[in-house]
Every structure is written in structure tokens, then in C-alpha cells.
């Protein structure tokens, strides 16, 4: 499964990697079960990455994004 760093997700979305974007955007995606952390028990780990859930992949397919 493909994993992404937080900065990569924001770059793809055209957002800056700032605290406000983390709280407004990334947390929303997590709450909606579209992305998930790879190290669930250590959310502040410098090694933390994110991956699309099946629900996230399906949403991207529906809007025409090839993954």
C-alpha cells in the first residue's frame, strides 16, 4: 500500500504544511475515514506517514483521480 508523508499530501492538495491545515484538513480526512496513520499509537512520530483507506481510494476513483 502506498504511504505518504503529511507534507506530500498537502503539496498534492495545494496546501501549505502548517498547523491550521493539519487541524482543518488532515484531521477531517481521518475523521471521515479517508486516510489513516501508519503508526496509530504514535501520532507525533517523525516517521509517521498516511495511507488511503479503501473508502478514500473509492472516492478518488469516483472523482476521476487515477491511483
UniProtKB/TrEMBL annotation:
Organism name: Olivibacter jilunii
Note the InterPro entries from the entry.
Answer: Fic-like_C (IPR049514), WH_DNA-bd_sf (IPR036390)
- Ranges of residues in domain Filamentation induced by cAMP protein Fic-like C-terminal: 3-53
Q: From the Swiss-Prot or TrEMBL record, give the protein name.
A: Fic family protein
Amino acid at each position: 500500500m502506498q504511504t505518504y508523508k503529511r507534507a506530500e499530501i498537502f503539496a498534492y492538495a495545494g496546501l501549505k504544511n502548517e498547523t491550521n491545515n493539519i487541524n482543518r484538513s488532515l484531521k477531517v480526512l481521518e475523521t471521515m475515514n479517508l486516510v489513516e496513520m501508519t503508526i496509530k499509537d504514535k501520532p507525533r512520530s517523525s516517521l509517521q506517514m498516511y495511507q488511503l483507506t479503501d473508502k478514500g481510494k473509492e472516492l478518488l476513483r469516483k472523482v476521476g483521480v487515477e491511483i
